[in-house]
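Appendix B, record 7
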Amino acid sequence: MVSGTPAAISLAPSFPLAFAKERWPLVPGALAHLGFSIIEPTTVVLPDIMRMRLESAEQQKARVQVSSCCPKVVRLIEDSLPEAVPLLSAAPSPATHHCRDLRKRLGPDCVVVFATPCPDKADEALRPENSGSADEVITFIELTEWLDQRGAWEKAEAREFSSQAPYWTYAGLLVLDVSGMDSCRQLLRQSDSLAPGFYELLGCRHGCVGGPGLPNLNNIGVRGAVILEYIESIRHTS
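Structure tokens (predicted):
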């Protein structure tokens, strides 16, 4: 980080999969050693996002809405299925909304970083409609390498996040409407016959817990159990 520049980091909700569980309590302290003064999971804004999605559905008067959270799905719709563009929710992604909130709190001269399992989130941050969000997007693989290079774990002590999300906000990682590009494409092509509702479409198989930017600490088959273990670890503190 630039010395003296206020900095904040937003951690996508799959972050427990990026670190060994004995390091979970050390994550905020280790990131503080990288120069971040605000360190939060992206899920802190989920209640706001749920409200914004409801408002978007009312304003767009859409029978079916598709989340704009997955950049791969947004690109699929815009490039290959333009008839589905009106289905995209106007609500920002949690990453965009949280990074804007962090910037508002720290001021215009700050640096805001978003850490994610999804390399495509860098393209999302560059879109004009998402201006004012993240200055830098890094994968969890890149973040863990950075922490190791700076020796941050050896210096870190257990501490709380600047704000912690309610434990239930992580449960969304375990509930998938549709995942995988083929499945998303198939659903979008039959959107006229879908039941009314809000659809979360995720381009990676198994959703964000299957993102390519995660270190390979856990087999894909047990990642859901790891998230449940993290939820249980914060259940009585958030």
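Remarks on this record: The radius of gyration is 18 Å. Residues 100 and 133 are 5 Å apart (CA to CA).
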